[in-house]
Amino acid sequence: MKITDEPVEMRKDEELDVRRLEEFLRDNIPGLKGNISIKQYKGGYSNLTYLIQSDNREMVLRRPPFGKKAKSAHDMSREFTILKAVRPAFRYCPEPLLYSDDLSVMDAPFYLMERIRGIILRKDFPEGLVLKPTDVKKLCEKLIDVLCELHSLDYRKIGLEDFGKPEGYVRRQVEGWSRRYRDARTEDAPDYEKVIQWLSDNQPPDSDRPCVIHNDYRFDNVVLDEADPFRIIGVLDWEMATIGDPLMDLGNALAYWSEKSDPPELQLMRVSPTTADGMLTRKEVVGLYMDKIGMSAGSFNFYLCFGLFRVAVICQQIYYRYYHGQTKDERFGALISAVRLFENFALGVMDGSKW
Predict the structure, then answer these.
(1) Residue 285's pLDDT band (cuts 50, 70, 90)
(2) 29: buried, middle or exposed (CB in 10 Å: 19+, 13-18, 0-12)?
């Protein structure tokens, strides 16, 4: 039984032009043999991901979504650049192969990287992967180990000194994501103004340990070794990576971390098996991270609240495209419920009742 993440046929309205792409690949990727086939990974709500296969090679193509996109989002060149810089120092990065902004190939810039074949955990553990609670806890610990390893990189030594601006990072994030929410708000969405004001009023000072942050670190963005599920062999989806506050990265990760004690309606929104027996709670994850990285967070409410707000903004931006008929993907229509749920959760974190 397969427990690895396998692609499916391309979704309607998200098909690539196979003929044009094949011509481009044969001109730019030496040594390809046999016919080219293209399938699409079914996960993901943001950038689109495709598997490109020839007789002798497997590659992954990333491109922006179709329809309206946030002005600063989906920068393929930026994502490709950080992969090239981080890959030599962080073995979990996929190997970047080629970037192109040739609009004669497709309607948007894209890049190619080598495929990392392995297990990707979605909402539940795949059939055939049975873990005891002690194993699940061990997997949690490995996930935090890799995040600490990333946050321990010296971004100056790997050529990313000018990649981000750590000074004022939190302030810019609060202001930027607040603006994005207001720009993407639809008539049926909550206004989030209480959350936005609280985040503005309760910002922590700049971190004294800025580092490379992934900004979308979670179980379904890591690849596990099929032969040893406790060994992480890849970290995917670097589109929002930058130089910034490591605690913001952790808060963003925990915004996706549902617990067994969470209300049932919130658990419905989970994207990873974080309610399985043996999974650490959000507070336990924070404690483990602080011990491993050698930091003290004080109150973590701000970071979690911001993480929840940011996820709500991402959901709202995607829902905006569905609401205005720019995409027909029915998955996107349900995201308005997530936007409402995350507001209630964020309000609870603000008053201390849900953290």
Answers:
(1) very high
(2) middle
- Residue 266 resides in a domain: yes
The answer on 240 and 104 residing in a single domain is: no
301's tokens: 């409410």
**Is residue 298 scored above 80 in pLDDT?**
no
pLDDT of 71 reads 46
Please state at what angle helix 246-254 crosses helix 301-323, rounded to 10 degrees: 60
Looking at the fold, whether 285 and 205 belong to one and the same domain comes out as: yes
What CATH number should be reported for the domain holding residue 73?
Answer: 3.30.200.20
Q: Give the containing element (helix H, strand E) for 174.
A: helix 169-184
CATH of the domain at 316: 3.90.1200.10
Domain for residue 173, yes or no? yes
pLDDT in tens, 57-82: 999 999 998 864 544 457 899 999 99
Query: Does one domain contain both 28 and 139?
Result: no
- Residue-number span of the structural domain to which 154 is assigned: 133-351
DSSP string covering 203-250, please? PPPPPSS-EEE-SS-SGGGEEE-SS-TTSEEEE---TT-EEE-HHHHH
User: Which residues have C-beta within 8 Å of that of residue 89, sequence separation ≥ 6?
Assistant: 153, 157, 158
pTM tops 0.85:
yes
Give residue-wise pLDDT tens across range 152-197.
999 999 999 988 899 999 999 999 999 999 999 999 999 999 999 9
- Is residue 309 situated within a structural domain? yes
Quote the tokens at residue 240: 């929002």
Q: Is residue 189 part of a domain?
A: yes
- Side chain identity at 117, as an amino acid letter? R
Buried b / exposed e across 130-153, counting CB within 10 Å, b at 16+?
ebeeeebbebbebbbebbbbbbeb
Domains of the chain: total: 2
